[in-house]
Amino acid sequence: MDIQTRPEGRATVISASGKIDAMTAPSFESSISDLIGEGKLCLVLDLGAVEYISSAGLRVILASAKSLKGKSGKLLLANARGSVQEVLEISGFGTVFSIYDSLEAALEAAG
Amino acid sequence: MPGSDARPEKRVIRWRHRLSVRLGVVFSIFTILIFAATLGYNYYQARCMITTKMEAYARNLVSATVGRVETVVTSVTAVTESMARSLEIFPFNNTHLLDFVEASVLSHPDIFGSAVAVEPSPDGRFQERYAPYFYRTKNGTAFVDLKESYDYTCRDWYQIPRELGKTEWSEPYYDEGGGNILMATCSVPFYEMQNRQKQFAGVVTADISLKRLTDIVSGIKVLKTGYGFLLSRNGTFLAHPRQDIIMNESLFSLAEERGSQELRTIGRRMAAGESGFIPFQTIDGVQSWMYYAPLRHVGWSIGVVFPEAELFSDIRTLTMTMAGIGLAGVILLMTAIVFIAKSVTNPIRALAAASDKIAAGDFEAQLPEARSKDEVGFLTRDFRMMRDSLKEHIRQLTETTAARERMESELKIAHDIQMSILPKTFPPFPTRDEFDLYATITPAREVGGDFYDFFQLNENLLCFVIGDVSGKGVPAALFMAVTKTLIKTYAKEAITPEDILSHVNEELAEDNDACMFVTLFCGILNTKTGDIQYANAGHNPPLVVKKDGTVKWLPRARSLVAGAMPGVVYEGESLRLLPGDSLFLYTDGVTEAMNLEDELFTEKRLEKDMTFSADMGIKDALQRIMDSIHQFADGAPQADDITMMMIRYSG
Question: Measured by CB atoms within 10 angstroms of the end CB, which terminus of chain B is less buried, N or C?
Answer without folding.
Answer: N
